[in-house]
Amino acid sequence: MLNMRRIFLKSAVALSIALTALPALAQETFRVGAYPANPPWQNRQEDGSFVGFEVDIVNEIAKRLDMTPEISGYDFRALFVATASGRVDAVISSLTITDERLEGQSFTQPYVEGALGIGVKSGSDIKSLEDLEGIRIGTIATSFPETWMKEREAEIGYSSLSSYDSVANMLTDLLAGRVDAVVNDAVGLRYAFTQMQGLELSYEITTGELFAMMMSKDSALLEDVNNTISDMKSDGTMAALYEKWLGAPPADGSVTVTPLPIPTVGNY
């Protein structure tokens, strides 16, 4: 009986050691949601893989945290549901930090300061925000640009606002003349217009918006991810990725190279 007890104890200890070692051997998955057609931030290829500035950020974070990145495509509005429900750990899509969003979600520190752009057909007379008076405009549904424009409807005086689920549909309508101008992320529009003939960025609107990765509220991964982004800024990785995808080095002292704390309500 004594020998049987010793054998049992040895087996239990061996099993405990094996189970303890499993996390070190098996990588966890970093589940990320992304709007699939938003270059140069992210874009899904024909083989289903994703490429882009924020994709490279995700892959680098996962590598440094010893995790396996898994990026899935979602409609823009579904991104918020995906994090709130815990279906993904984080989402990317040139998302702007706002106090309203911080009430129900968490964000990492920002890594890009964005701007809005007005997209028009080539040769258009629309050259400024004031020129949108009496004009039919298009935006992406529930996006920061749409919210920004709706808040200034009376001030700007545009005639109508059409919401779109995708940038492709919005720009198709712009090219076809169903809207006179579109308002969206300036970098994304500028990139899209290198791929589409007959459209141009006519004006850039400085808003001070800051782009970051959105995560589930108070996610257990938030601190580790934010610290990793700080490390990437400090060692030059973030600046290198910015120049690779956006075509120019980030400005000295910008949010792209400055480590920052996790955003809280009232600070953005």
What order do the helices and strands come in, and which of them pair?
Layout: H1 2-25, E1 28-34, E2 37-38, E3 42-44, E4 50-51, H2 53-64, E5 67-73, H3 76-84, E6 90-96, H4 99-104, E7 105-107, E8 112-113, E9 116-121, E10 136-140, H5 144-151, H6 153-156, E11 160-164, H7 167-176, E12 181-185, H8 186-195, E13 199-205, E14 210-216, H9 222-234, H10 237-246
Parallel strand pairs: 1-5, 1-6, 10-11, 10-12
Antiparallel strand pairs: 2-3, 3-4, 6-14, 7-14, 8-14, 9-12, 9-13
Concise synopsis of the structure shown:
The chain is built from ten helices and 14 strands. It has 268 residues and is of the alpha/beta class. It folds into two domains: 24-113 and 211-246, D-Maltodextrin-Binding Protein, domain 2 (3-Layer(aba) Sandwich); 116-205, 3-Layer(aba) Sandwich (D-Maltodextrin-Binding Protein, domain 2), CATH 3.40.190.
CATH H-level superfamily title of the largest domain: Periplasmic binding protein-like II
Query: Biggest sheet, in brief?
Result: 6 strands, mixed
Cα-atom radius of gyration: 23 Å
Q: Whole-number average pLDDT? A: 90
Query: Percent range for helical residues?
Result: 25-40%
Which runs of at least 5 residues are low in confidence (pLDDT < 50)?
1-26
What name is given to the CATH topology of the largest domain? D-Maltodextrin-Binding Protein, domain 2
Span from first to last CA? 68 Å
* Helical run tally: 10
Shape: globular
